[in-house]
Amino acid sequence: MCHGAHPHAPPCGRGRCRTGDGRGSGKEIVPLDRGTRRRTSTGNAAAGDGPGHAAGPAAGRPILAGRRPARRTVAHRPRRSAVLVLLPPSEGKASGGAGPALSPGLEGLSLPGLNEARSTVLEELVGLCSGDGDKAREVLGLSEGLRGEVAKNAGLRGAPTVPAGRLYTGVLYDALGLGSLDGAAAERAARSLLVFSGLWGALRVTDEVPSYRCPMGVKLPGTGALGAFWRGPMDSVMPEAAGSGLVLDLRSAAYAAAWKPGGEVAGRTAAVRVLQVKVVDGVEKRSVVSHFNKATKGRLTRDLLVSGAEPAGPQELVETLEGLGYRVEASAPQRAGRPWQVDVLVTDVH
After folding, report:
1. How many CA atoms lie within 13 A of 252 on its CB side?
2. Which pTM value belongs to this model?
3. What is the rounded CA–CA span in Å between residue 300 and residue 342?
4. pLDDT value at residue 288
5. Who's near 35: CB < 8 A, 6+ residues apart?
């Protein structure tokens, strides 16, 4: 263990080692591939999976720094509680749907403890979008070209539904590729993935809902800011939903505001950032790039589902991701009740 490192931090070579008194000065010693060390300047990384669009043809797939030519086989331990993966939704959503309309009490959706809060948001959203269209667009942050989203929201109660795993599109979900998973991986996805939503709170990928437009950052006239509204209902259901295994948090800041793991759940939660690595004048610099962030989180989730690995906690997660070819660094929380920080490093597009 490095001098000054947190007592629960992973050993050198597997995670980030902070220098100094453990409070984190922003200067870090980062293990390099050849066993040497270099002081780096780490950029701020607060950005997340905000609304975005898939990049055009010129955008390539980021090359993972330190990725090995061939993947190592991930050792599988005896089955334990499933990993819970927290995902953001996407602004882009599939159109259409052939499922039955929502039931009056939203019966059939997972996490039924959220149904009362879901009904509250649903009724206000439908009412808002059934009235003054310009006001609804302003509240929802929609341009004139997205006026059709207002009409869609107004008809949510009678609209056909589609499984959430097919509803969400965009960079992260394209990389995740739920529709192409085989039977075992698809079953793990149904059990492990939880998509946060401004309208529904959170959904399993098998939950059937209509297409809608209601980001978590919206402030509805009656309900108020949705991130704050959902905290109470989510606090009542998420500790049980989190089970006893790893909680892998891939949400963006807006959706993370709806529920923050606390207590013992926080100690087995890994909040993941994706950082693009560039070397400028011999100094490694890191930053968040939205497209890389979303695409890498989607591929990482898919790799875990396909591998069948179910790491028990953040330190095992680091080992698992390294075995899958990712370059990963982890920081233990500086005090109880906070999650681990896990950084996945990617290099320039080639």
Report:
1. 23
2. 0.77
3. 13
4. 86
5. none
Backbone angles phi, psi at 169, to 5 degrees: -125, -165
Span 81-96, mean pLDDT? 89
Q: What is the pLDDT of residues 279-297, one digit of tens each?
A: 888 888 888 888 889 999 9
Three-point CA angle 69, 70, 76, nearest 5°:
145
As given in the structure block, the two tokens for residue 271 are 């909040």
In this predicted structure, the answer to whether residue 329 has a pLDDT above a threshold of 60 is: yes
User: For residue 62, what pLDDT is reported?
Assistant: 40
Asked whether 143 and 191 are in contact (CB, 8 A), the reply is: no
- Sign of the Cα torsion 329, 322, 300, 278 reads positive
Predicted local distance difference test score (pLDDT) of residue 99: 94
List residues bridging with 62 in a β-sheet: 349
- If we measure between CA atoms, which residue out of 158, 29, 173 comes closest to residue 93? 173
Strand partners, 225: 219
Least confident of 17-31, 96-110, 143-157: 17-31
Q: Which residues contact 133 (CB under 8 A, 6 or more apart)?
A: 147, 150, 151
The torsion of the CA quartet 186, 192, 193, 196, rounded to 10 degrees, works out to 160
Token reading at 113: 């403890």
CA distance 268 to 249: 11
| 198-to-37, 68, 207, 210, 339 alpha-carbon distances in Å | 43, 39, 15, 14, 23
Decide the pairing of beta strands 340-349 and 269-280.
Answer: parallel
Element (H, E) at 176: helix 171-176
Give the strand pairing for 37-42 and 17-18: unpaired
